[in-house]
Design a protein that fits this description.
Order of helices and strands: HEHEHEHEHHEHHEHHEHEH
Number of helices: 12
Radius of gyration: 19 Å
Strand content: 15-25%
Distance between the termini: 69 Å
Largest sheet: 8 strands, parallel, barrel
Length: 262
């Protein structure tokens, strides 16, 4: 029986935090190994808010497979051709931003999943199986199982549809895009506001009801993360490569500035 390993999915199935890191400006494949060694479970290769090309995202995805960290891609809104091409190139998950309804979620599943859940076409090569000759029926069944499909809810209107969205077969992750949600609520940057917290509770309750995983993006305060994890968040975008590099750089330069010259 064919079996694919996904560290991101393995963490989720074990009811552990599945930790991702945003990749927005990195352009070389060594970022996959660097982030795996740093302790992350998945890459969040962001094609919504970056100029990263399809080719670069594909190469990073392939490198991630070899490094043992799960490559997940956030696609531009409605760009299913990018999603399926990157899945053919090695990605093990797709995140679709700004989903507002169950109908949108159904369309995403239909475009990204192989039959019987969707209508995605089969490539002549299956990258995730290292280009080996495999039983096609087993392969597409395993790819349907192991490929994570996530939707981002980023408005109050989307949160109100969380239960219906989470009920769609084929959706694995319902993720709150906290920056855009707080902005749309008139609470920019106030990620601990009661309205935002209530939205997290709504999504977590919907995920528990329908056997899906609740996700969070944009929240980096450990105390606030703990609160949302207690509600049920398990799929956590823990930071981005630029922010992590700058934080480490500031910490290092601040320590060295304390050294007094003679």
């Amino acid at each position: 029986m064919l079996r694919l390993e996904s560290l991101a999915l393995k963490r989720l199935e074990a009811n552990e935090l599945s930790l991702g890191v945003g990749i927005r400006l990195a352009r070389t494949v060594d970022i996959a190994q660097i982030m795996k060694v740093s302790g992350f479970d998945w890459l969040f290769i962001d094609l919504e808010h970056s100029a990263t090309t399809l080719d670069t995202a594909a190469q990073i995805s392939m490198a991630a497979l070899d490094a043992g960290i799960t490559p997940i891609v956030r696609i531009p809104i409605g760009d299913y051709s990018v999603a399926t091409r990157l899945l053919d190139a090695g990605a093990m998950g797709i995140i679709h931003p700004h989903v507002e309804s169950a109908d949108e979620a159904r369309r995403i599943v239909d475009a990204i999943c192989y039959p019987p859940y969707g209508h995605r076409g089969v490539s002549g090569t299956l990258t995730q199986f290292a280009y080996q000759s495999v039983n096609l029926s087993e392969a597409v069944t395993e790819l349907n199982r192991a490929t994570l499909i996530g939707v981002m809810l980023e408005t109050p209107e989307a949160i109100a549809q969380a239960d219906e969205i989470a009920s769609i077969e084929g959706i694995d992750i319902v993720m709150i895009g906290t920056n855009d949600l707080a902005m749309s609520m008139g609470r920019p940057g106030d990620f601990g506001h009661k309205d935002v917290a209530d939205a997290y509770q709504t999504v977590c309750d919907a995920c528990k009801k329908h056997g899906k995983y609740a996700g969070s993006g944009g929240v980096y305060d450990v105390g606030l993360i703990t609160k949302y994890v207690d509600m049920g968040v398990r799929f956590l975008l823990a930071g981005g490569e630029v922010g992590l590099m700058m934080a480490a750089g500031r910490q290092r330069t601040a320590a060295l500035r304390e050294i007094k010259t003679k």
